[in-house]
């Protein structure tokens, strides 16, 4: 996993593995947000598997999936609700771009 720090509170990466969750837990991540639809790619780890391991590590996991370039206002609203009050957040998708874009959209004044 190549973790890119967007702010002190938020980092992003490509698809994470179960082992990456240990690294994220050690870094103090309290919330993981997945922006990837399940089965987007062959052999992709299912969100349910990530969520189960995250729960074992006391990390909340939220799934807000959307295809690349197809983020909707409802996705941004769901993201804002999910991150409200969270301390350290990590978002992931296939490359990190959607996870970065949704953060930017949620933090842009309209």
TrEMBL record:
GO terms for molecular function: transferase activity. Residues 5-105 form the Beta-lactamase hydrolase-like protein phosphatase-like domain. Transmembrane segments: none annotated. Signal peptide: none annotated. It comes from the Bacteria. Keywords: Transferase. Pfam families: BLH_phosphatase. This is TIGR01244 family sulfur transferase.
């Amino acid at each position: 996993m190549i973790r890119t720090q967007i702010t002190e509170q938020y980092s992003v990466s490509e698809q994470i593995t179960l082992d990456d969750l240990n690294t994220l837990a050690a870094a103090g991540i309290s919330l993981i947000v997945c922006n990837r639809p399940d089965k987007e790619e062959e052999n992709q780890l299912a969100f349910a598997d990530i969520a189960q391991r995250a729960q074992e590590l006391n990390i909340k996991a939220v799934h807000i999936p959307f295809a690349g370039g197809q983020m909707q206002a409802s996705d941004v609203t769901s993201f804002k609700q999910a991150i409200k009050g969270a301390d350290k957040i990590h978002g992931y998708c296939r490359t990190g771009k959607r996870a970065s874009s949704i953060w930017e959209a949620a933090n842009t004044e309209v």
